[in-house]
Amino acid sequence: MEFFLQQTVNGLTLGSVYALLALGYSMVYGILKLLNFAHGEVYMFGAFAGYGVLTVLGGASAPLVPIWLMILLMFLAAIVVSSTIGVTLERFAYRPLRNSTRIAPLISAVGASFFLQAAALLLFTANSRTYDAPKLIAIQTGIPIGPIRVWMVRVLVIVTSFTLMILLTLWVNRTRTGKAVRAVSYDREAAAMMGIDVDKVIVVTFLIGSALAGVGGVMVGLVFGRVFHLMGFVAGLKAFTAAVVGGIGSIPGAMFGGLLIGFAEAYTTGYLSSTFQNLIVFGLLIVVLLVRPRGLFGRQELVKV
Amino acid sequence: MSDEMSDSAALLTLSDINTFYGQIHILQDISMEIRIGELVCLLGGNASGKSTTLKTILGIVSPRSGTIEFDGADVTEKSTSFRIAQGMAIVPENRRLFAPMTVLENLEMGAYLRDDDHSEDLEQVYQLFPLLADRKGQLAGTLSGGEQQMVAMGRALMSRPKLLLMDEPSMGLAPILVEQSFEIIQQVHEAGVSILVVEQNANMALSIADHGYVLATGRIVLADTAEVLTEHEGLKKAYLGR
Amino acid sequence: MKKRSQWPKLVLLFVAMALVAAACGGDDDAGAGGDTTTTAAAAPAATTTATTEAAPATTMAPEPTTTTAVEMQPCVASIGFIGPITGPVAFIGEVQLNWMQYAVDVFNEELSIDISIVEGDNQFDTAQSATLAAQFVDNADMVAAVGPAGSDNVDAAGAVFEDLDSDFSFVSPSSTRVGIAATYTGMFRTVPTDAEQGPTTADYMIAQGASKVFLIDDQSSYSTGLADSTTAALEAGGVEVVTESVSQDVTDFSALVSTIPDDADFVYLPWQVAANGQIFANQMAEQGKTIRIFGSDGMDSEDFTAAGSLVATFAPDIAGVAGSADLLAGFLAEYESTNTFGPPVFVAAQVIIEATYRVCMTGATPDRASVQAEIRNTDLADSILGSPVSFTSDGDLAGGQFFISEIQEDGTKKIAG
């Protein structure tokens, strides 16, 4: 039981980060039918932005401001940096290609991904950085759940992630702009016919998706520690998998897919072997695609006559 | 042209519109006019340029030459959302509802550009289509064809349009629903909305229209009152199947 | 007709500041290792105590008996460098290139010769290594090369060298796979092999009374090779080994940490990315696991500071080698930071440069065959690593050995065996 609980907490932490990343992937796909391969790099820059603030404000061992303020500022910096990069990508890498072939923006996305990786290498060098969060929030602090104790940083990550997911769900379902985002993802042309400014909606989508990725980057830095210029690749791949498993384009699908992948990884490692982790995760992807090609929450495309 | 038929002011005027898709000359010197309170139909077969005309009116495609005036202002260079804000609304071909959204959400999307309270318009739409009030929480994609047509009409009316554009309202509907659909159009028209109906079903369209234009390969080949067109020999042969 | 407001500029400014901060903030973890680590070399170091102002003198080969080089015809040659200057392990390549440059600068001045470097960035990619090898063979001025790092890349480049010109020598500063030097005529290495590391590690754990070891490889060939040789030695000693595996790119080990059995005596991590080891240690602490971590040479870095843990190293931390203090200070004055991947490069470059120099001293123009012959004759009584350097007939470092040190509470390392 203790072991199961521990693995559940492990899976929940990882899964909530994957979910935040998958959301951006899925939202952009929903709107543009574009696989934004640079999304992982947007997340990486968010992680570095958080690191930058942490360092400027004294580092984890000697913070110059209260810890809550430090963490808040780190998240804010990541949101600003990531969403700026996301919106810039949209403007210069994707928008000019929006009416060209389907493959062109895809190639542009791959190129943007490499560009951002190389930029990070030049800016930050290849050395990996460590948030050293245990010095900021001691490893001994935490909330006891039955026989185990959950570190405060994990609590923070899980709570923040779920809060953001709930806020996002409310936003797309309750607000005018949120509904417009959904409308554009369902039928871009019809949305334009309603007077919705599609360009603006696309920018907003990149803004929010990238901001979530930035928050995810800081979370990973806080809970797992290491940030480096290549961290976006694997994370992006996992987020993509989560988005596809959940049904790419679907917001609840991305959340569910992210959590599912997180749990699958934790339980596989716990009950089988870490060697099988990727085998199980990508096996899951294949099974889901075979049984439900549109993903768990995917919807049937409207047949256009 | 029988301009003397109506003495109300022009709501929409197209003058010598030429529209291209790449090198292909789609619309050639199109001129037409819809006056306030009129119901005008634009007839034509497949690939005659009907849809392109609508897209040009809405600003989804821009003409290479010619001008479009709406409600007394030149809107040729204006964006779609500007034109919609000025009072155009469209019921697209095949209705194009946001299937995974509820009926209510679809209706709200119709009022997207309006910042003011639109509960009154919602009430009016529900009065016109009482069924929609019962189905407001249902996903639009799960409705029947006729019900979807009501949502599409209602959605367009939510912006309180001066000019309602209808793209092939009979397309994909069972004959009984086509009749119902045109009754609704007439009802909306009687409520004072100017309407442009783009149709292949010339019989149906002319039965409710004041004026009609006939498009063939991108040119207007006939323009007259609905009565005259209904009796037109060439048109009978080509479109009316009589 | 877009409105231009001020806030985008402010946002951009903020972004720029945050990124600059992230870029500059790195110095604390890559900081000068010199004063934080003090591994004492247990090697049979015949350390020369008489340190002169000319630092390299202490690590030089016996002084040539002939006249000074100035009167000879100029000794000119070019040496290649293959390393991961960019790519996933650029932290290795950057330091290696710096040490390469440093060695050439030091010896050019010391010996009044004119050696130049041709840089080859293999991005830690075997295909790139093969391409670079072919380019180097084509370069008629090049007598030999330092590199590559990593046994997979040595294999890729070695096959090309062997095929095109077996007189071309390449001295790898970080390749520990057993038997690889015997495969390629021109290969030498300045680090010991896993044949030494695995058993040294296992012997230490057995001597500490271990009965169960939890081993996690990082899915690289370095790691699995080392895992295999250590497992074999442990099992031969009657120790139970539980094996797991996790990719280098992963930073969440918490699920794996949960599976560590409480009765394990050591968690053995033969990993290349030391920062991952630190994260692993943190996640163990988080779950209240107190089992000792034993890291391989790849974990010997300032990035891994979990007190009480052990690490093996193929080269000593030269901060602990008294005779190398001046060389290290000279290096740090110019390049700021180093790690254990660096000094073996200095030795590799030294071996090639001195071989070239000896050829020049005979009055001949250095070519690949003569340089290779002289590399075989290498016999340094001492080196920057604090130990003598000569090669076996295969090209392996003779008498190479690993060191095991324990990380102290203050982050320094103390030799443990």
Features:
heterotrimer, B: 242 residues, alpha/beta, Rossmann fold, six-stranded mixed β-sheet, four-stranded antiparallel β-sheet, 10 helices, globular, disordered N terminus, C: 417 residues, 2 domains, seven-stranded mixed β-sheet, 14 strands, 38% helix, elongated
Please summarize what this structure is:
The complex is a heterotrimer of chains A (305), B (242) and C (417). Chain A is mainly alpha-helical.
Blueprint (SSEs and pairs):
The complex is a heterotrimer of chains A (305), B (242) and C (417).
Chain A: H1 2-32, H2 39-56, H3 67-94, H4 103-124, E1 129-130, H5 133-136, E2 142-145, E3 148-151, H6 152-174, H7 176-186, H8 188-193, H9 198-224, E4 226-227, H10 231-246, H11 251-272, H12 277-291
Antiparallel strand pairs in A: 1-4, 2-3
Helix pairs in contact in A: 1-6, 1-7, 1-9, 1-10, 1-11, 2-3, 2-4, 2-9, 2-10, 3-9, 6-7, 6-9, 7-9, 10-11, 10-12, 11-12
Chain B: E1 10-21, E2 24-35, E3 39-43, H1 50-58, E4 65-70, E5 73-74, H2 80-86, E6 88-91, H3 103-110, H4 119-128, H5 130-134, H6 145-157, E7 163-167, H7 175-190, E8 194-199, H8 202-208, E9 211-216, E10 219-225, H9 226-230, H10 233-240
Helix pairs in contact in B: 3-6, 6-7
Chain C: H1 7-24, E1 76-83, H2 90-111, E2 114-121, H3 126-138, E3 142-146, H4 151-164, E4 169-172, H5 180-183, E5 187-189, H6 194-207, E6 212-217, H7 221-236, E7 240-245, H8 254-258, E8 266-269, H9 274-286, E9 292-295, E10 310-313, H10 325-335, H11 343-361, H12 368-376, E11 379-380, E12 389-390, E13 403-407, E14 413-415
Parallel strand pairs in C: 1-2, 1-3, 3-4, 4-5, 6-7, 6-8, 8-9, 9-10
Antiparallel strand pairs in C: 10-13, 11-12, 13-14
Helix pairs in contact in C: 2-11, 3-4, 6-7, 11-12
